[in-house]
Amino acid sequence: MDGRGFQAGGRGGAQGVSCWPNPGRRAGGCEQPDRGRRCRNRLELVPHLLHARTLALVTDLDLIPDWDELARRVGAAVRGGVGLVQVRAKALDPQKQSRLASLIVSVVGARAQVVVNGDPEMARSSGAAGVHLPEISAGASVSEARSQLGPDALVGRSVHSSTAAVQAEADGADYIFFGTVFPSRSHPGGPTSGVEGIAATVNAVSVPVIGIGGITAANCRSVIDAGAVGVAAIGAIIGEYDSYRATRALHGAMAGGRSHFKGGRAGGTAGR
Question: Which domains, ranges and CATH numbers included, belong to the chain?
Fold first, then answer.
């Protein structure tokens, strides 16, 4: 891998998979710049997200507590086409969270983007591409995260309503995870929005919306048809021993969905 990532059907990638350009770019700088050109920043990365069926993966140590096995499944999923990995391990102390984030960054390498849940400083120290913030957090705001990590870092936010999505966009979030779309193991018995919530959120904002919550190969196409640029999964990917095959199944199921993204603030209008 030469730091530019891979294109659909290109070297090292699965056929038909499109990953974000130059994933070697990390928060606060450019660790693996392309030769003879400037490092791509989020103004290029975010519009690229809009032209692919983005598949995101969120780690879960309750599901896979063994770090080596988790890393193996994450690596296989990225080979299968996961383009964004969120490292979430809130039960660990900060030192262990940082070690896990660094492990995942090293496993993913230049094949996808990694964001760390909640802590901008951990994102910086682990070499991640940015940070993903929960809707309600006593930690950093979007603007504070941007200030700490610099203009090239990715800053995403989870939301549970279109109103919160509008606020996240106003605060400067690059992308949004919206959920919980369907009943899920991680939020048992909690409220769900269905694809109607996705559609309302997509119509309310101009940044990329990724659906999360109970995502499977059987329902992910409906999330795309409701307007999301992609989906985020936990159990449907790392809950499977063959996470490569699980990822390919999700990609196949998403293919051909009708995303209604209008064009993003971060990279200007990106029509479909």
Answer: 25-32+41-254 (3.20.20.70)
